[in-house]
Amino acid sequence: MVRSASKSDPSRDNIARAYSSPPWWYDIRGLFILTFAYRSTLGRQVRLFGRNIGAHHLEVAIGSGSLLDIILRWRRWKGLPQVRIVGFDYAKPMLVGARQRFADRRGMTLLHADVSSLAFADASFDSANIANAMHCFPDLDGALTEVVRVLKPGGTLAANVLLYPRGPWLLRRIAGRINQWGMRKGILYTPYHHADIRDKLITSGLVMVAEEVCGNAYNVVLRKLPEPV
Ligand SMILES: C[S@@+](CC[C@H](N)C(=O)[O-])C[C@H]1O[C@@H](n2cnc3c(N)ncnc32)[C@H](O)[C@@H]1O
Questions:
Q1: pLDDT, tens digit, 9 for 90 and up, residues 72-102
Q2: Is 126 in contact with 57 (CB distance < 8 Å)?
Q3: How many domains does the chain have?
Q4: What range does the domain containing 45 cover?
Q5: Which residues touch 215 (CB under 8 Å, ≥6 apart)?
Q6: What are phi and psi of 184, to 5 degrees?
Q7: What is the percentage of the chain residues whose pLDDT exceeds 70?
């Protein structure tokens, strides 16, 4: 069943407005946030998401597409197969960046959509990635319901989730300040506690394939349960 488009949701629209910066500035800011708020690296993200791209792939909240672009170059370098990709985002300026970036790429469809209300049929995709975005969704339960719905049984979801700051005092304080700024600005909805987000994921119809906590990020790969016979 395809869920019909939901009516305007103020918190979702606020997030879309907050992501209205030009893509080049968004990319620079993103590297800073990755290093000091997530305390993670680009290489780790590329390996996590680059390995979870099936024949028909859904890129959730694609942003300006800069991370996916690096991931696709990495896949080419590794000799991994070309795939069909559908990417979507709710912030139109982000989508403009992604459309320019992938203008010449075959097999790439880019759409304006809200993750909590997807116009795809059930069981459409072999894989889905939610990169740097789960903690931006005001309606995470609705988002997970939709992503799980459009995954094929046996399909996989990879995600990284921003956790409340951990580790040494100074690093915790820096990450905490960045998070507060992100929430004020509206580009971050909330970080999560590890146990809470883990529970939410495994009660949404997914089974754990791999997980790690690294810096302030929870990196996870899950599989949709096959249909009962
Ligand atoms: C931190 S960015 C990550 C973008 C990209 N995945 C990356 O890793 O560079 C978060 C993205 O989530 C998008 N987003 C937030 N809420 C959304 C929603 N309800 N539906 C679709 N996209 C949403 C924002 O517009 C933004 O582009």
A1: 999 999 999 999 999 999 999 899 999 999 9
A2: yes
A3: 1
A4: 10-224
A5: 38, 39, 40, 166, 167
A6: -65, -45
A7: 95
* Mean per-residue pLDDT over the chain, rounded: 92
- Residue pair 160/41 in contact (Cβ under 8 Å)? The answer is no
In the numeric block, the tokens 């719905």 are attached to 149
Say which CATH number the domain at 97 has: 3.40.50.150
Quick one: pLDDT at residue 13? 78
**Within a domain: residue 36?**
yes
- Return the CA Rg of the chain: 17
Residues in the chain: 229
Q: What lines the ligand 1 site, CB under 6 Å?
A: 12, 15-16, 19, 30, 61-63, 66-67, 89-91, 94, 114-116, 131-133, 136-137
Q: Probe ligand 1: pick from 41, 137, 161, max atoms within 8 Å of CB?
A: 137
Asked if residue 1 is part of any domain, the answer here is: no
Say how far apart CA 79 and CA 77 lie, in whole Å.
5
Cβ atoms within 10 Å, residue 168 = 8
The C-alpha angle 11, 16, 21, rounded to 5 degrees, equals 140
Domain assignment of residue 151, yes or no: yes
DSSP bridge pairs for 163:
192
For ligand 1, pick from 38, 136, 141, 144 the residue to mutate: most ligand atoms within 8 Å of CB: 136
Q: Which amino acid is at 137?
A: F
Element (H, E) at 86: strand 84-89
**Any domain includes 229:** no
